[in-house]
């Protein structure tokens, strides 16, 4: 099986190659993309074999959804999956010359985010997203960062999404967070079938192996791994002082760990970024990895990180040195769940 072979995502019949594109950069994450720059991003992803696109209203106050929708318009709708998120409604306001850069997006602050995990909030959010995307359907809906709103999400958002899935309005649903503990509770307390975990199942942070991954495997819930570069340190083949880890400066211990992993990768003809993208897929609960990219060149480079399969010997040596979790096994040697091919 190659990186472009489709795998099952969720239980609603969705399939896509196991590397997707996270569209936060289309919302001017950190910097504004030029008018001749952003239209090249999705075509580069498509050319690299990507057929799963993840977005959210939060990204650029709706700009990422609008740009993604425009970029997908000429592509065959039945050949790709789109996921977006609920939990943050966008309410118009006077920007008064302000930007949204405090929330990391270089866009006018012409809307404000209002947290709403109620049934009505979910329905309104999906309707607004459909309008911004210009699509006739959204395949996968994720409850976005309900950290302080767990009860509201359990009482409102999840039952609403379950109802929409039963009605055939959406195919699958779940949650997207940068913690694994609450996602694990959602796995066990709801009938969601997809969870997106950001930064907690990576080469440098394998905490999701303690709770989310075994729970998801037991309940036939697909996990999507995001932020696999841990905000920067794993994005290049030369980790060094000044790199970021979880959106802050990486300390010496983290840098040393990344360098040790790189040395083992090099001995077997691989690179650190290749390991960073492929490692999450070694666990049989993980269906896909989502990577971003703010330019066609970045997206093409990220898409190519699965072109060369990392040798099993790399994972074995990393485990022997205590650098990665012993709970995961190379997925092509693990038993597949029914209906899901082994990667």
- CATH class value: Alpha Beta
Q: Looking at CATH, which topology would you report?
A: TIM Barrel
State the end-to-end distance: 6 Å
Largest sheet: 8 strands, parallel, barrel
Q: Give the topology string: H per helix, E per strand.
A: EEEHEHEEEHEHEHEHEEEHHEHH
Strand content: 15-25%
Oligomeric description of these chains: single chain
Overall helicity: 25-40%
Compute the number of strand runs.
Answer: 14
Question: What Rg, in angstroms, do the CA atoms define?
Answer: 19 Å
What global shape is seen?
Answer: globular
Task: Give a concise summary.
The protein is 31% helix and 17% strand. It has ten helices and 14 strands. Helix 1 runs parallel beside helix 9.
Written account of the structure:
The chain has 343 residues and is of the alpha/beta class. The chain has one domain: TIM Barrel. The chain has 10 helices and 14 strands. The chain has an 8-stranded parallel beta barrel with strand order 3-4-5-8-9-10-11-14, surrounded by 5 helices. α6 links the parallel β10 and β11 (222-226). α1 packs parallel to α9 and α3 (119-133) crosses α4 (150-166). The termini are close together.
Task: Spell out the blueprint of helices and strands.
Blueprint lengths: L6 E3 L4 E3 L2 E4 L18 H7 L4 E3 L8 H10 L8 E6 L1 E5 L18 E5 L3 H15 L6 E5 L5 H17 L5 E6 L3 H9 L4 E5 L13 H8 L2 E5 L17 E2 L2 E2 L2 H16 L4 H7 L7 E6 L4 H8 L8 H9 L23
Parallel strand pairs: 3-4, 3-14, 4-5, 5-8, 8-9, 9-10, 10-11, 11-14
Antiparallel strand pairs: 1-2, 6-7, 12-13
């Amino acid at each position: 099986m190659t990186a472009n072979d489709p795998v099952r995502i969720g239980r609603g019949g969705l399939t896509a190659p196991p590397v997707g594109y996270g569209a936060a950069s289309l919302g001017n994450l950190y910097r504004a993309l030029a008018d001749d720059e952003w239209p090249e991003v999705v075509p580069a992803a498509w050319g690299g074999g990507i057929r799963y696109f993840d977005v959210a209203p939060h990204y650029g106050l709706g700009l990422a959804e609008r740009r993604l929708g425009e970029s997908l318009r000429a592509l065959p709708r039945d050949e790709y999956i789109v996921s977006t998120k609920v939990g943050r409604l966008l309410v118009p306001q006077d920007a008064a010359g302000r930007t949204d850069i405090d929330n990391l997006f270089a866009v006018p602050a012409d809307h404000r985010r209002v947290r709403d995990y109620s049934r009505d909030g979910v329905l309104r959010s999906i309707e607004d997203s459909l309008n911004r995307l210009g699509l006739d359907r959204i395949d996968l809906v994720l409850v976005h960062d309900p950290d302080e709103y767990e009860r509201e999400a359990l009482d409102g958002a999840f039952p609403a999404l379950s109802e929409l899935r039963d009605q055939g309005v959406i195919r699958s649903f779940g949650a997207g967070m940068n913690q694994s503990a609450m996602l694990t509770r959602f796995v066990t307390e709801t009938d969601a079938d997809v969870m997106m975990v950001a930064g907690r199942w990576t080469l440098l942070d394998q905490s999701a192996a303690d709770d989310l991954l075994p729970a998801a495997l037991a309940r036939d819930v697909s996990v999507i791994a995001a932020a696999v570069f841990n905000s920067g340190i794993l994005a290049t083949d030369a980790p060094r002082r000044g790199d970021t880890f979880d959106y802050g400066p990486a300390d010496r211990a983290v840098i040393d760990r990344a360098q040790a992993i790189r040395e083992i990768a090099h001995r077997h003809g691989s690179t650190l970024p290749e390991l960073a993208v492929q490692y999450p897929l070694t666990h049989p609960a993980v269906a896909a990895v989502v990577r971003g990219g703010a330019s066609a060149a970045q997206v093409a480079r990220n898409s190519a990180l699965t072109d060369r399969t990392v040798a099993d010997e790399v994972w074995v040596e990393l485990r022997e040195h205590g650098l990665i979790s012993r709970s995961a096994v190379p997925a092509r040697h693990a038993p597949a769940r029914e209906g899901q091919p082994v990667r």
